[in-house]
Amino acid sequence: DSGVTQTPKHLITATGQRVTLRCSPRSGDLSVYWYQQSLDQGLQFLIHYYNGEERAKGNILERFSAQQFPDLHSELNLSSLELGDSALYFCASTDLGGELFFGEGSRLTVL
Amino acid sequence: AQKITQTQPGMFVQEKEAVTLDCTYDTSDPSYGLFWYKQPSSGEMIFLIYQGSYDQQNATEGRYSLNFQKARKSANLVISASQLGDSAMYFCAMRGPHSSNTGKLIFGQGTTLQVKP
């Protein structure tokens, strides 16, 4: 158990819908990273938040947005979903030494 | 731009034998970190081993060792005495030098390892 909690573990929805994925980092970790793992693109960095502020963006679509709340949990919002958005979405946090701890992922299926 | 290449989509190894999973990388930065992760069929990402670009010795963690050849820009993972539980997807990843984004990794496409009994 990495200490990073992601919900839901599985989600099935239809095209055009909107979903929210939630992540709680390890206790004491201020950073949250979101990654997407799809068959087409592999594992890709999406976005990084540190103590509530966006720090870096990767290949994140405009239909996707994220935020980190004062209690440090983060949410990834995916809207106008397309079939190609079906993927495993990981959240991760880092400790002061820079080690990356991944959650178990949220598997999104868009039908 | 940084890039990670894993040229072996799939590998087989006999139980109890050693196996090497290849990883080459490309970066112009002198400071970087290299990682290997294991992803079993259940989906979670399990950290295996880390090598810093300035580390003089190859990293080892139990049955895992990293064969770091800086001049060739390769960071191969060696698993000794393979076990059935080693069957999984393995990812090589690289972190750049920017300390403010220590968790921003670039991943290779992965290698699926199957251990035969």
Summarize the structure.
With 111 residues, chain A is mainly β. Helices cover 0% and strands 55% of the residues of chain A. The interface between A and B is medium-sized, with 25 and 24 residues.
Task: Walk me through what this model shows.
Chain A has 111 residues and is an all-beta fold. Chain A is built from no helices and 11 strands. The mean pLDDT of chain A is 94. Chain B has 117 residues and is mostly beta strands. Chain B is built from no helices and 12 strands. The interface between A and B is medium-sized, with 25 and 24 residues.
Q: Provide the low-confidence segments of chain B as ranges.
A: none
Question: What coarse outline of chain A follows from CA principal-axis ratios?
Answer: globular
Radius of gyration of chain B: 14 Å
SSE order of chain B: EEEEEEEEEEEE
**Global geometry of chain B:** globular
**First-to-last CA distance of chain A:** 31 Å
